[in-house]
Write a structure and sequence with these properties.
Blueprint lengths: L4 H22 L5 H34 L3 H21 L4 H10 L12 H14 L1 H5 L1 E4 L6 E7 L20 E7 L2 E10 H5 L5 H23 L16 E8 L4 H9 L3 H4 L3 E4 L1 H7 L12 E2 L11 E3 L2 E5 L14 E4 L4 E5 L4 E5 L8 E14 L6 E7 L1
Parallel strand pairs: 1-11, 5-14, 6-9
Antiparallel strand pairs: 2-3, 4-13, 6-10, 7-8, 8-9, 10-14, 11-13, 12-13
Helix pairs in contact: 1-2, 3-4, 5-8
Amino acid sequence: MKKTLKELLELRASKITQITTLTEERGESMDETTLATIKSIKEEIEGVDNKIEAIEATRSLAIKNSKPMADKEKDAATEFRSTFDKYLRGQINNETLEKRIMQAGQAGKGLETVPDEFYRTLLDKIKEYGMLFSDANVMTTANHGDMLIPLADDTANAGAWTAEGGTIVATDFATSRITMKAYKVTTAIVISTELLEDAFFDVQTYVAGALGIRLARTFESAFINGDGTGKPLGIVADPATIDVTSTTTAIVDHKDMLNAIYALTPTLRMGGVFYVSDAQRKAMDSWEDGNNRPLLQLSQNATQANGMETTLYGYPVRINFELGDPAVAGDVPVIFGNPQNYWIRNIRNITVKRSDELYAMTDEVLFTATTRLDGKIVNANPAFSKVTVAP
């Protein structure tokens, strides 16, 4: 009959008591029979110990397997973060990283997979320095081929008053389509081996932040001014963007901003945002109405953390460092429109790789980040306007 854990512990205690009693009674005058008895009891204790160990191991395994899924995922994420940190510091190689990633229950994408915190830091930096990336319609696709987006323009059509028994006339949509491609974006940084070996150096935050900022600058430059050749087509360069020329030479005033609003149809003004250069935003701070009240108003959610966001004519005003100078003829310091009409296509998550060979002679390590994306205005009608400084 199998004994319970409690019974085995009690049996073990009684056997130890027997040995203690014999030892105290015999002392130094133990005979062969007593020694044989003590040896036999020790063997029995060893057998009991084995049974106790087996029961405890079984219970431990059962508890581990019954752990809530959230806890298991948390453990896997912790292991994954630790593994990725070791990879960045050069303590494990690419092959080991890929194996550990799959063991941790993550997607089997090798180096394309990075810990959530690392990827969030990357995205936070991209959104911090890339305003349009934060506001636009961002989508991620698995395939890397051309993506065709159908458009339908029905603004020229309406219903009709029809007499009783009259014929109902059907009118087709005016259709077209936009092609989104997959342009490759890369950046790289070099870090000294000494810094990576410093246990107190937060390598993940540093690498993610540096790579994220560089990618953001590249993204934002293309989303605003890109010509569509080997890179996204930016809002300023898009021929569909309505061009409003400032009424005064080398100045963009509040009347020009109003003209930019009304250059768009009423439905496309909804959700509109002003993106302005830093120099333009500085000039706008001095705009006042006839009663010396500032035209810029603080938005309801304005805080120091979000840059004290303001509104003009009820539309948010946000700084974009890729726009031009209002004092330079031909520059575009202002664009207006609903950023959701600008689509950004991500082909996959950002890939981060480490290389020790290229800078081996200077004892430095190269980190690269790559991704593939495209961006352009997706609307059958002009969705953005821009203000060009008059000569």
